[in-house]
Amino acid sequence: MAAEPASDLEFRAAEPEKGSPRPLRALASGGGSMCLEHTLPGEAAFDYNTISISANYLLERTKHRPAIGIVCGSGLGSLVDHLKEREAFPYEKIPNFPVSTVAGHDGQVVFGLLNGVPVMCMKGRFHSYEGYPLWKTAMPIRVMKLVGVNSVIVTNAAGGINDKYHVGDVMLIKDHINIPGFAGNSPLVGKNDENFGPRFPGMSNAYDKQLRQEAKSVVKEMGIEESVHEGVYVMLGGPSYETVAELRLLRLLGADAVGMSTVAEVVVARHCGMRVFAFSLVTNKCIMEWDSDEEANHEEVIAAANARKHHLQELVGRMAARMAQ
Ligand SMILES: O=P(O)(O)O[C@@H]1C[C@H](O)[C@@H](CO)O1
After folding, report:
1. Which of 14, 69, 111, 232 could form a disulfide with 149 if both were Cys (CB 3.0 to 4.6 A apart)?
2. Which positions are annotated as binding a purine D-ribonucleoside (predicted)?
């Protein structure tokens, strides 16, 4: 007979299916609904030394020294398919790195030149619904930091709440609503590591104004203004898509698009002083009416991302070139 956990601290969440990430640390009970893991008081979630090991592994094996990082959202891995002088490292091989378990997220760190600019890319990201604590979903951002990255481009697939948004549109993110954060679930929970940043980082300028201006000018150059908006991204835990009532609530809160990622990465990036440019690809229109028979699904998310990949590759490439100046 399986032994009962002796206390809440011995309970462990199921591991994500693919690969074998390090065992989860002790869990505290009674956290928010998506809070799979809290670190113990005084314990740093991902300390400088642990992150240094991952960063050094990469630095010892790549000739590139990028200052720009890119996180690819669902179905958006092709954003980095055209890098020159590519060097790819599967997540499984990088010490202390989690592994991707979601369709549309390949699971490689890819270095290379994008329009001649050295970049470090996450081809596949981590989500809390895979079973990872938020600090682990955002851990690659700290690895980027120690590799030398000072600006990140964060992308995601999202559902369009704003009724002016259509499938295939891009939303430049001007702000976010951190729903897990409302319940105290933050990637920065635990002892603060001052090597990375302050205990209480500000978030009112999370999405760099100048980079948003640059993006608008790129969008104009590309002639795609009609399908590009600027708006507010809201993060939920997933993996279930939202109910109609939830979506109506999120609309009332001021959200324009909804997804299950990005925010933890942005919080960690800002904590360690990186500049952030982020956008959502609207892969589906959120279902706001109770009498609708439609239902959101991941296949349509991937298909919509695939259909827009050329525009998005160009947007990211042009932004990287400007950010490098
Ligand atoms: O990694 P992102 O945020 O792009 O992926 C979105 C959110 C879920 O992971 C998935 C749902 O279809 O797409």
Report:
1. 69
2. 242, 284
- What are the tens digits of pLDDT across the range 7-50? 333 333 334 444 333 333 333 333 333 444 555 555 557 789 99
Task: Name all residues whose Cβ lies below 6 A of ligand 1.
Answer: 73-74, 102, 125, 127, 156-157, 238, 259-261, 298, 301
Q: How confident is the model at residue 316 (pLDDT cuts 50, 70, 90)?
A: very high
Residue 125 backbone phi and psi in degrees, to 5: -120, 180
Amino acid in position 150: N
Could you tell me which of 103, 81, 122 has the C-alpha nearest to residue 300? 103
Question: What ipTM was estimated for this complex?
Answer: 0.99
Q: How far apart are CA 322 and CA 117, in angstroms?
A: 10
Annotated ligand binding at 127? The verdict is yes
Residue nearest to atom 7 of ligand 1 (CA): 260
Average pLDDT score over the chain:
88
Rounded to whole angstroms, how far apart are CA atoms 185 and 316? 30
Q: Write out the two tokens for 257.
A: 């698009």
pTM for the model: 0.89
Residue 228 pairs with which residues in a beta bridge? 170
> Was 28 annotated as part of a binding site?
no
- Structure-block tokens of residue 169: 């549109």
Backbone angles phi, psi at 248, to 5 degrees: -65, -40
The letter for the amino acid at 186 is S
pLDDT in tens, 152-187: 999 999 999 999 999 999 999 999 999 999 999 999
Tell the residue number behind the tokens 């979630």, with chain if given.
45
Query: Tell me, what DSSP letter sits at residue 203?
Result: -
The strand pair at 108-114 and 170-178 is best described as: unpaired
Identify whether the C-beta of residue 111 lies closer than 8 Å to the C-beta of residue 62: yes
Give the list of residues 6+ apart from residue 146 with CB closer than 8 angstroms, or none: 51, 52, 54, 55, 56
Q: Which domains does the chain have, with CATH numbers?
A: 9-38 (no CATH), 48-323 (3.40.50.1580)
Determine the Cα angle at 47 with ends 46 and 53, to 5°: 95
Output the residue whose Cα is nearest ligand 1's atom 8: 260
